[in-house]
Design brief:
299 residues, binds zinc ion, 2 domains, rod-shaped, 4-stranded antiparallel β-sheet, Endonuclease I-creI, alpha+beta, 12% strand
């Protein structure tokens, strides 16, 4: 199972206790997989659990006893009673049926109902990428007005949702990890939220580790190359005029550097008697390099 289908499976198991939230959830299902022609209300989806959930909501809200029926790879929930179909259409879509605003304001008047509606939209038409790969959550809409109203609903929770047109569909999407976490929370996908956070932490940790390793390698190269350059300068002095040519302090420094070509300046300073700080060591080594340079210049 993909991360996305795990999230949907979890969301289908969320049970709203209040009637208003059940109406909001069913309203989302009507928008995406319902069809009301003034006579009958029919829901259709390939997702069995979604149609079972739809049947449960319909039965509870309209005192019916319909089932999800399989027909040629699709599951159907049919409300044949004209009165019941109209009542359900009115409370979910609004009094004007499909001519009402894209999202019926009455169905999403409370925060709890907004959350249920967004959850319903995601179950029907959403997807979320595995956070180990990328941060991306989207809900696809065939209708621009619905996409725009859904975006406004999501934005009301402080989430920065955007719309993009892709293959005749208006995609409401979220790109930022933190905001996807907020979105999972709003939809009540609490297990998915924890999984997402864990995977996100692992990913960020891995990125940070890579950064640290790269940084340390770079520093190490710097230490080694400076050490090599200093060792070359000291070898040159030793070969040409002898280390005795240097002042006693510089000579001691030179001998230590040759003995320990790849330790840090700080460690080198600690080996001197008396110990010298990093900048003092750096100063002496620079002097030695300058002396070697001047000797080379003389030749
Ligand atoms: Zn509610």
């Amino acid at each position: 199972m993909s991360f996305s289908s795990d999230v949907k499976a979890e969301l289908l198991n969320v049970n709203d206790s209040a009637r208003h939230c059940k109406i909001a959830l069913l309203a989302a299902f009507v928008s995406f997989c319902g069809c009301y022609d003034g006579e009958r209300l029919v829901f259709v989806s390939e997702n069995k659990r979604l149609m079972e959930k739809t049947a449960d909501l319909v039965n509870e809200l309209a005192a019916l006893s319909v089932n999800a029926e399989l027909y040629e790879n699709h599951y159907y929930v049919k409300i044949d009673s004209r009165d019941k179909a109209r009542d359900l259409a009115n409370i979910t879509l609004g009094q004007g049926g499909y001519d009402s605003p894209a999202i019926n304001p009455l169905a999403v008047s409370s925060v709890c109902c907004k959350r249920a509606y967004i959850r319903g939209c995601f179950i029907c038409s959403g997807s979320v990428s595995d956070p180990q790969k990328q941060y991306h959550l989207e809900i696809s809409n065939s209708d621009y007005d619905h996409a725009d109203a859904l975006k406004a609903l999501i934005t009301s929770f402080g989430i920065d949702a955007k719309i993009i047109l892709r293959k005749n569909h208006y995609i409401v999407y979220i790109k930022e990890g933190e905001q996807i976490v907020d979105m999972l929370n709003i939809m009540s996908a609490h297990k998915a939220l924890l999984d997402f956070e864990n995977l996100r932490v692992v990913k960020d940790l891995r990125n940070n580790l890579n950064r640290i390793v790269n940084c340390e390698t770079a520093n190490l190269n710097k230490v080694v190359s400076a050490g090599v350059r200093q060792a070359e300068a000291i070898e040159y002095i030793k070969r040409t005029v002898g280390l005795g040519y240097l002042s006693p302090a510089l000579e001691e420094m030179a001998r230590l550097r040759l003995e320990y070509p790849d330790i840090s300046l700080k460690e080198l300073g600690e080996k001197l008697k008396p110990p010298v700080g990093k900048s003092g060591v750096n100063h002496r080594l620079k002097k030695i390099c300058a002396i070697a340079d001047s000797l080379k210049g003389d030749n």
